[in-house]
Amino acid sequence: MSDKWTTANIPDQHGRVAVVTGANTGLGFETARALAERGASVVLAVRDVEKGEKAAARIGGEVTVQALDLTSLDSVRAAAQALRSRYDRLDLLINNAGVMYTPKQTTADGFEMQFGTNHLGHFALTGLLLDLMLPVPGSRVVTASSTGHRIRAAIHFDDLQWERSYSRAGAYGQSKLANLMFTYELQRRLASHGTTVAVAAHPGLSSTELARNSPAAVRLPLTWLAPLITQTPAMGALPTLRAAADPAVLGGQYYGPGGRLEIKGHPRLATSSAQSYETAVQQRLWAVSEDLTGVMFPVAPSHQNPMRSGPAIAG
Fold first, then answer.
1. Between the CA of residue 31 and those of 142, 196, 235, 248, what are the distances in Å?
2. Region 149-154 average pLDDT
3. Which domain holds residue 19?
4. Does the pLDDT at position 304 exceed 70?
5. Count of structural domains within the chain
6. Catalytic status, residue 254
7. Residue 227's pLDDT band (cuts 50, 70, 90)
8. What's the whole-model pTM score?
9. Which of 101, 172, 184, 254 is labelled catalytic?
C-alpha cells in the first residue's frame, strides 16, 4: 500500500451513501467534503442543524443534513428512524463525532459525557442502522479513536460513569479505548456475513476544536506548539478516509498518521494497545453497552476469533 495515500486515491463514490457524524466542522467536515467530491451522497449527522446546513452549502454536491445529538438516545433513535425512512441502503457509516476532556457532566440519559457521547451514542446509532448495511457489498463502519486510548485508559466496569471520582483524561481514554474494542468485536460478529466490515482510525494531532475543553496547562502549550506538532484537519481526516475508501482495507484494521509517534503524516496501518485486543473485555463491554442503550445488533456473537490476538494485516 502507498506511503503517500491522499484524497486523490479515493475511488469513485457515485451511487454510495455515507453518513458522517459531527460533520459540520473539523475532521468530520473534511471527511464529508472529500467523499462528496468523489460523488458520494453524504449525510451530515450533526447536533446543530443550522451549522450543518452552512457546512452542506460549503461542500456542495449531493449533501443533506440530519439532526443527531449523540448525548441523547432519544435523538439517536429519531435520527436512525429518519435515515431509515429516506434510505433503503447505507454504504458508509463514519462514527466521527466526539468530545474530549469535558468537565464532569452527564448526557441526557445519565451517562458520563465522554463515554456516553463517544462510545454509547455511536454504539446505538450503529446498531440501529446496521441492517441497512449488511446486504451492501463493500459497506463499512468506520469509528474514530485516538492515541488517547493509551493514556490512563481502561474500561472501568466497576464505575463506568465515573461517579466515585472523575478524571478528564481517564474518562476520555476509556471512551477511545471503547471505540476500538467496539470496532474489533463488531468485526468479529460481521466476519460471517462477508459484506460489511468494521474499521477504526485516528487523526494524530490535528488542529481542530476538539481540545477546547482541555485544561489550560495542556491547551496553552499546544496552542504555542501547534504549527510544529499538529496537522491540518484535511490531513487529520485522511486515516478515516483511507479506512472508509481504500479497496485494500480489511475488517478489524486501524489507521493513523504514518509519521513519528503517529502524530502527523499520511495514513497507514497502526497498532492499538495490547489491552484493546482483549477479547473477553470487548465482549463484556458489548453486553454492557447493549444493556445501557437498549440496542441489540442484528449480528450474533461468534465463538471464533478471526482477528487472532492482534490487528488484521493486509496481504
1. 11, 20, 10, 19
2. 90
3. 7-293
4. no
5. 1
6. no
7. low
8. 0.90
9. 172
